[in-house]
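Replying to the earlier thread about multi-chain prediction with a worked example.

Input:
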Amino acid sequence: MRVAVIGAGVGGLVATWLLSHNHEVVCFEGENCAGGNARPEVIRIGSSAVPFQLGPTYFLPKNYSTLFAIFRELDIATERTSMRLSVVTEDGQPSFISPGLHPLRVSPIMNRKGLENINELNTLLRRTAALLSVRDTATTWSSFIREQSVSEEFLRSVILPIGSAFFGVPYEKLGGISASSVLLYMALALPSLKNGFQIVRGVTGGTDAWIRKLCKFIPNETLRLGQIARGVNIASSSRVIVVHDEGEEAFDHVVVAAQPWSAAELISDKNLATILRGFPSFESEIAIHMGPLLELDPNVWSPSTVIAGEDIAQLTTLANNEFKDGIYRSWVTDGPIRPTNPLYKRTYRHLLQVPQVTIQQRKVREESRGGPVHFAGAWTRDVDSHEAAVRSGVEVARQLGSTHPFLSRTIKTPNPYNFGDPIEYGTKNIECHR
Ligand SMILES: Cc1cc2nc3c(=O)[nH]c(=O)nc-3n(C[C@H](O)[C@H](O)[C@H](O)COP(=O)(O)OP(=O)(O)OC[C@H]3O[C@@H](n4cnc5c(N)ncnc54)[C@H](O)[C@@H]3O)c2cc1C
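Result:
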């Protein structure tokens, strides 16, 4: 079978890797390098050219069961990160720090107020397990939080800043986001109740290291970097034409693993294109700069800091160990605190995770069912994450009859904060996490 994959983000790459085992696959990627949101940028600092990871950097073994199963399959090394989430109010005062990401350093940073906040948060998360387990995506954050008896202080100093920082949106927009998405994000950064503290892991050598390794398992001629797909014309239920800069090619199936707004520009089917245009999005900016935005004591505060005020949300993380005293990554939205003279800036377009998204996802599935066009990428699933992206790639590969041995393993999804439904691939168990 001949299959086209459009987009070499992690979702498209995983689909390409698995499908190319027994199908003829062509993966079109408009950029000159694979990885999509996860691709690094090379930044010049003095005479050195340093690759920086601007996008995804932290992964939780317990929640990211598919990703860690792939890491095991491909022998990708991971290590603990010092990633920490802390929050300050708009006047620049630190008010909260998440201990879940690095339990060993909880005690020195924990003060009485922080402890009360953590207790309240734990109570809140415990109550929300029900919401997550029924996969309620229709309830918005503002209506959900109104029904919880959390204190004003906790709401103002913890919940709003963290949520708005994660989504890179002002407080008032956060209220419209689906409650289950907000809670899933919080479960990433904060202690996961059923499993105790989670140690966040990063890929040894940066996220890019695993993308590069994954590409080694994909036949050379399969990846067409720098080749933009311009159109996807459905000729029949088993024939689809991909138009690109050098002509057009026929395929039995096409997997569109580009973001919905890019996919909408490709698809000739008017109904599908209209649905894809209905996915709401927003933009945020990532900046690489010298020195932290806030002067924090490194013995107490980690280099990862979320700063949020009424309308700002910024995330700074240590970008590269080599420059640990001075290079930071900041997630910047509108607001007064911004890095001066950043070394580099890149704007990302994200899915705005409002309840409407679930309706759109269902429509895409219904409209494309039985046809030769399939969709993959984090946007097709719950929360925009690496796990959602790779999982979509695994699932589309299964649907299209990949016989890759990876698909005969079982991946366990043990806790309620998992993305998507539990998946069973086969009979042989693999332990995804220890
Ligand atoms: C700043 C940032 C930080 C993040 N941090 C984390 C984190 O710490 N942990 C985590 O789990 N997740 C994180 N995420 C989310 C995670 O990066 C994404 O969910 C995931 O990388 C998305 O992968 P994808 O395959 O769905 O799509 P994408 O990465 O969006 O890839 C789509 C690809 O399609 C290509 N494309 C589009 N149109 C065409 C066309 N017409 N022809 C050819 N190619 C095309 C694009 O160039 C792109 O390469 C972060 C995201 C961002 C932006």
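The chain has two domains: 2-43+209-278+354-429, 84-199+281-351.

Feel free to reuse this layout for your own posts.
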